[in-house]
Design brief:
Helix content is 76%, strand content 0%. The protein is mainly alpha-helical. The longest helix has 20 residues, at 54-73.
Amino acid sequence: MGKHQPALLGGVFIGVLSSLPYINAANCCCLWVIAGGVLVVYLQQQASPTPVATNDAVIGGLIAGAIGGVIFAL
């Protein structure tokens, strides 16, 4: 798994679930954004034998949020 692949998958998760009308109605307290960030860190941890560094998790979440925002805007 590449370095940015978890962020891409998390961003697609955020964007798709936020843009669907009925699913977005269940979006309480930015649930899909938080779940997308958790997905990114989970996938990063599965690809690494050592704990994920905080800066790697933050950059992955930032990229996922940007991708999710672009998908939602489209």
